């Protein structure tokens, strides 16, 4: 009798395991079916969304380049371009029922540890030790053909230059020495900008006069002078000849990055031994 | 005792049949909800993703706008050919916002490849401008697998 009871228990156990296996299998199939088609259906529209986002960032770049390089600067260039972009997006993706809208900030925001005073989405503070150019826009995208409304994203474009210090390299055996003015440059992120060449620096003046310079580029992990706190950043150093060590210099540097965004910075620097 | 054993066996057979019915029912319901894409449609979707990624990558590298606005069509053709899989044929047309074609022929593969193919994937990518000027261009990239 005892043996019979045990056998009955085993059958129930096997049945329960089979049912559990069935439930798990069916759940897995259902889940994969539902999630696959939820994503698959949107792939086509994700391409449109990514295309519009990428284009909007490019538009901000073009607008900021124009704002920083045109003379006189057009403060409404971003607004004008976004108005046109709204029309172009609608036309380019006509089959999707795409509607693009935007808003521009006119206020002061603290970004990357700095106060950026935006006007119609554009901000610029130049001729300072830390100088920058920035653009910001918040966009909303509707794709009416699939009922997608209110997809919101913010695009930012930014370029900052920090003129850090000036180093003195004494000459050997009566030769003239060199002064090295150093700067670090960041894009949005903030990400260090490391791809600039001599041609990107359109202006280099010392005490108001143009100076010929040799550009050195390096990552500083050891301090100048030895023992001081290192910049721990990618450094652009502009070296020029000087007959004697100046106690201080007024350095003015103008840079146009590979996106054509311009920043001009100015700083009074006390020269220290390298 | 013999009769009772038989009855028990019958119940188990019925249970097994019911369990099988449940499994069949579950699979039927799942198949009812799932609409498997037909292969060519799925293929076109994949090609669209590949095409968009290639254009997007060129844009991120700041090459796409340069090629388009400087009229570097040979460079653009070479870049696309290098970026796309070797068995994918393409044809790129660049339009201005008035709908006029502004580029020289950019493609890989004969026109027959496109006409003979049942499904041609098409990707639209808009480049708003270059350097300081806003001047939108619409890129339409057509792709087929050879």
Description:
The complex is a heterodimer of chains A (274) and B (146). Chain A has two helices and 14 strands; from the N terminus they run H-H-E-E-E-E-E-E-E-E-E-E-E-E-E-E. With 274 residues, chain A is an alpha+beta fold. Chain A has two domains: 33-159, no CATH class; 161-273, Immunoglobulin-like (Sandwich), CATH 2.60.40. Chain A is elongated. With 146 residues, chain B is α+β, with helices and mostly antiparallel strands. Chain B folds into two domains: 1-35; 39-145, 2-Layer Sandwich (Ribosomal protein S3 C-terminal domain), CATH 3.30.1140. Chain B contains five helices and four strands. Chain B has a four-stranded antiparallel β-sheet. In chain B, strand 3 and strand 4 form a beta hairpin. Chain B starts with a helix and ends with a strand.
Q: Radius of gyration of chain A in whole Å, from Cα?
A: 30 Å
Task: Report the sheet with the most strands of chain B, covering strand number, pairing sense and barrel closure.
Answer: 4 strands, antiparallel
Question: What portion of residues of chain B is helical?
Answer: 40-55%
- Rounded mean pLDDT score of chain B: 85
Unreliable stretches covering 5 or more consecutive residues of chain A: none
Q: How many discrete structural domains of chain B?
A: 2
The total strand number of chain B stands at 4
Helix-and-strand structural type of chain B: alpha+beta
Low-pLDDT windows of residues of chain B: none
Kindly provide the radius of gyration of chain B, computed on alpha-carbon positions and rounded to a whole number of angstroms.
28 Å
Corresponding CATH architecture of the largest domain in chain B: 2-Layer Sandwich
Provide the descriptors you would attach to this structure in a database record.
heterodimer; A: 274 residues; alpha+beta; Immunoglobulin-like; 2 domains; 12-stranded mixed sheet; two-stranded antiparallel ribbon; 14 strands; elongated; B: 146 residues; Ribosomal protein S3 C-terminal domain; 4-stranded antiparallel sheet; 5 helices
